[in-house]
Design a protein that fits this description.
about 450 residues, two-stranded antiparallel sheet, 17 helices, about 55% helix, about 5% strand
């Protein structure tokens, strides 16, 4: 027989052992130690999203985005930054468009000034000054190659789109500066775009266009400050942007230039030290795990938008000019959306903008205005590939918000709703933007396994 005090002593020792083991696990798991359990402001867990995404969603969305309708995105990469002088010092020489040498007299003054500005932008001094610090010209070069077949398709696509009843007019879709880009030829990955320019982009987003709990609090503020003092709507906005930022950083770390192989071919893969620098709690003042959790939150919000618009999206023609291809795409979209509907713990947008009508309207207006400004900030990105994916993912998120707030609380968007219409760029951005989030969660699994293997 054991004395009571002996039993108590054994239990205490066992508890101490459990705590020590937990600390050991946290030491080896790093940023994944706290990436578990319930997701803030949602009713599901990290574990349930991991299983759902990696086994049901990711394989299907990845396959869907290979199809012609989704791989071409029309975008205007020539719009100037509306918030600060456009020094374009990280713009790439390969992206430069030569100016006309002969200009009509009545506009010669303006054009001559612009031509000189363009010449200075791409001067050897500017390129040399920023080459090592701010970007890698070769990695950031945008591949604008479009097949002859693709160019022929676009003409028929435009005729089809012009016949649609647009919910709103998108400037980029109508602008002569807009071009189709093949997303598969320009994957989102590390481009060497670093330094002051991208830091200014994110600083502007967090400090000027994002709700935050205290002055100076931001993604890179270095403070482990909880998001307190913010109402639900403000927390949702902050987590959406943080989740998007996290997703972009994961892609850069997962598709990093590791060097060249024996044949001189560039090799890309996981960069664990860079991942740890961005997300390890020891290197981020404890913020890393919460940044990763915000990714899951953003994923759930866009997943909810896809579900809410599923009836509308199932009726979309996905027009490319080929009946067989269009039908195949419709079937693939239907199968994907059927899986989206099986998730039972979607984000509940019905909890937003409740209460006093005047106050709710004010919040909704602030929410919309802040996000609108962020979409404009994307025109300040100096690397064309980064700008392409930034504009696409922000457009995808904006389309998701448009869906969530377009109909009565809890109701589905109806295909025959004349007040609601999605354009081709919005649909392409919606699916590709969500695909980026799904890929990020899948890549987290790869990092988790890689880090665990290293720590053995």
């Amino acid at each position: 027989m054991f004395a009571r005090r002996d039993i108590v002593a054994v239990l205490l020792l066992f508890n101490v052992f459990c705590v020590l083991m937990k600390n050991v696990n946290c030491e080896t798991d790093g940023c994944f130690c706290k990436l578990k359990g319930e997701i803030d402001d949602c009713g599901c867990t990290v574990e349930s999203v991991d299983h759902f995404n990696n086994f049901k969603i990711y394989p299907r969305i990845n396959s869907l985005l290979q199809k012609d309708f989704f791989k071409y995105f029309k975008v205007n990469l020539k719009r100037t930054c509306p918030f600060w002088p456009d020094d374009s010092r990280c713009s790439l020489r390969d992206c430069h468009v030569e100016q006309c040498t002969e200009v009509p007299a009545n506009i010669k003054g303006f054009s001559e000034k612009k031509r000189k500005h363009e010449k200075n932008k791409y001067s050897e001094e500017a390129q040399k000054e920023e080459k090592d610090e701010d970007c890698d010209h070769e990695l950031g070069n945008l591949d604008k190659t479009i097949s002859v077949e693709g160019q022929k398709q676009f003409k028929t696509w435009q005729k089809h789109d012009d016949a649609q009843n647009y919910f709103c007019e998108l400037d980029d879709e109508k602008s002569t500066d807009s071009d189709y880009v093949d997303l598969l030829r320009n994957p989102e990955r590390y481009t060497g775009y670093v330094g002051n320019s991208p830091q200014r982009i994110w600083h502007s987003i967090y400090e000027e266009n994002c709700f935050k709990p205290t002055p100076g609090y931001g993604y890179h503020a270095g403070k482990n400050t909880p998001i307190e003092g913010l109402c639900l709507e403000q927390r949702v906005f902050y987590r959406l942007i943080s989740g998007l930022h996290t997703s972009i950083n994961i892609h850069l770390c997962a598709n990093y230039l590791l060097g060249k192989n024996a044949y001189g071919v560039q090799t890309w893969g996981l960069n664990v030290p860079e991942f740890m620098r961005r997300f390890d709690p020891k290197l981020t003042a404890g913020e890393g795990p919460q940044r990763l959790k915000n990714l899951y939150f953003t994923y759930l919000v866009e997943l909810r938008a896809l579900m809410k618009a599923s009836l509308y999206l199932e009726k979309e023609l996905y027009y490319t000019g080929s009946d067989a291809v269009d039908q195949d795409t419709k079937i693939a979209v239907k199968e994907f959306l059927d899986n989206v509907k099986t998730f039972n713990e979607h984000f509940d947008e019905g909890q937003l903008f409740k209460g006093d009508t005047k106050e709710a309207l004010k919040l909704k207006t602030e929410f919309r205005d802040h996000f609108y400004n962020i979409t404009r900030i994307m025109d300040c990105v100096g690397c064309d590939k980064c700008k392409l994916w930034g504009k696409l993912q922000v457009t995808g998120m904006g389309t998701a918000l448009k869906i969530l707030f377009s109909s009565t609380e809890g109701s589905m968007v109806q295909p025959n709703d004349t007040k609601f219409q999605l354009t081709r760029p919005e649909i392409v951005a919606l699916f590709n933007g969500f695909g980026r989030l799904a890929t990020s969660i899948k890549e987290l699994e790869l990092f988790r396994k890689k880090i665990a293997k290293i720590n053995r």
